[in-house]
């Protein structure tokens, strides 16, 4: 049996246009849910083009209320999509221009969130209320925010062993809150 989703996603990646990739991911949010988030839950909400005030916009956000037995936690995964053909690292191991821009963008998101916590919580609350995927009517009082930031960029074949070590170091040094992911992880989900 032909996996039409795999064919569509592969075509979007080969076109190297992030808008085509975003379109497939918006139509099939389970790809992101399974590839990027630790938990598969009916309380996870995926939204594309999530505005953070008037200056910033995440390509996607995944929101989950509660963490294991703790209901007073909001997990938020903010996702920046770059081109599947974008170079991730330069030959000398430094960030490529595209990765530098994406890293600055996700840092700007955190600065905005830290400066606008109540506004951010209201945005998340609005998302929960508007979502059919959640039976929650609002966010918990005084919640703890766990925020992850993911950058999806390039392909695995573009990485050298040193590059993988750098990606893992970024993930570890950020207390697992920043992760650089290649499109191959998403393709693996689509193929299964």
Quick description:
It is built from seven helices and five strands, in the order αααβββααβαβα. It has a five-stranded mixed β-sheet with strand order 1-2-3-4-5, sandwiched between helices. A hairpin with a 2-residue loop joins strand 2 and strand 3.
Tags for this model:
192 residues, alpha/beta, Restriction Endonuclease, five-stranded mixed sheet, 5 strands
Task: Evaluate the radius of gyration.
Answer: 17 Å
Low-confidence stretches: none
Structural class: alpha/beta
The gross shape turns out to be: globular
Number of helices: 7
Question: In the CATH scheme, what's the topology name?
Answer: Restriction Endonuclease
- On the 0 to 100 scale, the average pLDDT is 83
**What's the number of extended β-strand segments?**
5
Report how far apart the termini are.
13 Å
Sheet with most strands? 5 strands, mixed
What percent strand?
A: 15-25%
Q: CATH architecture, please?
A: 3-Layer(aba) Sandwich
Strand order of the largest sheet: 1-2-3-4-5
Percentage of residues in helical conformation: 40-55%
Task: Give the SSE string.
Answer: HHHEEEHHEHEH
